[in-house]
Write a structure and sequence with these properties.
This protein has five helices and four strands. The protein has one domain: Rossmann fold, CATH 3.40.50. With 114 residues, it is α/β, with parallel strands linked by helices.
């Protein structure tokens, strides 16, 4: 996250402690890009993305998660997320994912498991 804060082309607007708060804030702030974890409390990231898609369909979503299952990534991306970054790859992948997604491309970390 420090790389995001230090990037002059990006502005971190807000944080949410759980999925319900993420949905609420997405509707209020209407950000260009949303980073979501799948393992959020109160409302998991997949369900949060489903609700965010209805509220703010123009926002791009990147999952930033410890969940390495290719099947989970497939479900997450099928809901309209544009990126899937593994936390173990955050240093090498996050900025690349943000740049790819913001330019209209999809990004998925390489080390997913079956």
């Amino acid at each position: 996250m420090e790389k995001l804060r230090g990037n002059p082309r990006l502005r971190v607007v807000d944080f949410a402690a759980d999925g319900l708060e993420a949905v609420r804030k997405a509707g209020e702030v209407r950000p260009d890009l949303i980073l979501l974890d799948i393992g959020l409390p109160s409302l998991n990231g997949i369900e949060a993305a489903r609700q965010i898609r209805k509220l703010v369909p123009e926002s791009k979503i990147i999952y930033l998660t410890a969940e390495t299952s290719a099947k989970v990534a497939e479900v997450a991306l099928s809901l309209g997320a544009e990126g899937y970054v593994l936390k173990i790859e955050v240093d090498s992948d996050l900025l690349d994912a943000v740049e790819a997604v913001m330019s209209g491309k999809r990004f998925v970390s390489r080390h997913l498991t079956d």
